[in-house]
Amino acid sequence: MFRHLKVFLFVALLCGVAACARAAEPLIIDGITEPFRDVTLTVSVPGIIRSEPIVEGASVKKGEVLVELDKKLEEFEAARRKAVMEQTKAEYDATRQLRETTKSVSNEQLEKAESDYNVAAAEYGAAAEELARRELVAPFDGTVAEIALRTGAACAPYEPIARLVDTSRFYFTGHLDGKSAVRLTLDEPVSLDVGGVAKPVTGKICFISPVVDPASGLATVKAIFDNADGAIRPGLAAKLTVQ
Fold first, then answer.
1. CA-CA distance, 29 to 32, in Å (whole number)?
2. Within a domain: residue 12?
3. What are the E-state strand segments in 78-187?
4. Which residues contact 99 (CB under 8 A, 6 or more apart)?
5. Do residues 163 and 146 lie in contact, with contact meaning Cβ atoms separated by under 8 Å?
6. Going residue by residue through the chain (243 aa), what tens digit of pLDDT does each one get?
7. Domain stop point among 94, 118, 133
8. 215 and 171 housed in the same domain
């Protein structure tokens, strides 16, 4: 009986050691690198593309103009509305000053002057907004990956015009067995081997899918990496290692 108990304990010990060894083995996850941000840019109004101040491959700052539509009419309208606003503002200020100093202006006259100014300011704001919509600007710092429409081309509302990517950081996206995903934790340090890059890069896990795909039994995992030097070009196959 004692002999059987010793054998049982020995087998259990071996199984425990094997389980620990398996748990200590690093996880290797295949996946692909993706830009931190990748957007297709459009404008909300129709028009003819007048110029492309930026070329493909250029690095741009947030707010920089990428493409301009024809906008002469909108410029004239904005200038006209601004002049009307400034005139009504001067009249309102003069009326208010008279009211405060001489009391020769009624409340109704002051209220009408203020109302005229507010309407003119709103109309100028609308005209300025229409003018701003004739320009396609960068929503963040990045690199122009593509310009789909060139100078002289007609542009429909929300038609793709340019693609802007931010590769100062990048994601790795991969999938692994749902049971193995329980070993992972957010912000856990990881290393990444990318084809064509001499040495692994380090980052951290930023997303672990809370659900497992019932068809494949796989869970999605994402990790984020710094790429300020541009050494990694997103879109490459890679292997993520989790110790």
1. 10
2. no
3. 135-137, 142-147, 154-155, 162-177
4. 105, 107, 109, 110
5. yes
6. 445 544 444 444 434 433 443 445 888 999 999 999 999 999 999 999 999 899 999 999 999 999 999 999 999 999 999 999 999 999 999 999 998 888 788 999 999 999 999 999 999 999 999 999 999 999 999 999 999 999 999 999 999 999 999 999 999 999 999 999 999 999 999 999 997 787 889 999 999 999 999 999 999 999 999 999 888 989 999 999 998
7. 133
8. yes
* 236 Cβ contact partners less than 8 Å away, ≥ 6 residues apart: 32, 33, 194, 195, 196
> Do the beta carbons of residue 131 and residue 78 sit within 8 Å?
yes
| pTM reported for the whole predicted model | 0.78
Q: Do 183 and 235 sit in the same domain of this protein?
A: yes
Residue 157 in any domain: the answer is: no
Residue 107 corresponds to which amino acid? N
Q: 168 and 124, same structural domain?
A: no
Q: Show the domain range for 184.
A: 25-36+164-242
Query: What gap in Å lies between CA 65 and CA 54, rounded to an integer?
Result: 8
- Cα separation, 99 vs 92, whole angstroms: 10
Tokens found for residue 165: 């990517």
Number of domains in the chain: 2
Q: Comparing C-alpha atoms, which of 174, 141, 136, 138 is closest to residue 158?
A: 136
Q: Is residue 229 part of a domain?
A: yes
Contact 69, 134 (CB under 8 A): yes
CATH number at residue 212: 2.40.30.170
